[in-house]
Amino acid sequence: MSYPTAWLLHHKINRAMAAHDDSQRLSGAVQLDDVYLGGERAGGKAGRGSENKVPFVAAVSLGERGQPIDLKLSLVSGFTLDAIGQWAQANPAPQTLVLSDGLGCFAAVADAGCVHVPRVVGTLKPCDLPESKWINTVLSNLKTSLAGAFPSLNYRKSATALLDAIDTDLINQRAPHLHQRLDLADESRDERRSKKSSKPGPLRT
Fold first, then answer.
1. Strands, DSSP E only, in the chain?
2. Torsional class of 48: left (φ above 0), alpha (ψ -120 to 50), beta (otherwise)
3. The pLDDT of residue 204 is above 50
4. How far is residue 107's CA from residue 169's CA, in Å, rounded to a whole number?
5. Number of domains in the chain
6. What residues have CB less than 8 Å from 23, skipping those under 6 apart?
7. Residue 198 lies inside a defined structural domain of this protein
8. Residues above pLDDT 90, as percent of the chain
């Protein structure tokens, strides 16, 4: 298989996985935060006005014991009430408990039927915010990965493909159970043994 063919398959598989994830709604308790992809480019604007910065929402849902079980990284048009309202209509299920910082636009999740619990962060450090532990861990891993692997990427052009792929690689670093989308502690021993012994089927072309 040639490199271009392998790269094309890589993108198609990532898009298919992302499309499946997009159809699944978050529930329970969800930690939510706003993020920008990309940084200043040579000769461009600095700060959040940079033409290479792309806004997206990061959300981690938690299980009954507070463990992370799902992750969504979603591009948005901006951090406005309308944009977050559209995100909330498509992603968290009604009655989901949404934990966020005090950014005003996050109040739109309440209009989508969620229970919103904001907290003004101010000068608090991540260690002072246990309710944001997992979202902070995800974003820390994300920023470290991007800084090392894609220092000069055109994020405006490549953001969708990047977010399709990055959650798998990112979560495997420190929280593999996020990628598995399940809690292994709740599986029976026979189910785990079956997964380990099963062989992948043939790939049809």
1. 29-37, 54-62, 68-75, 97-101, 115-119
2. alpha
3. no
4. 31
5. 1
6. none
7. no
8. 31
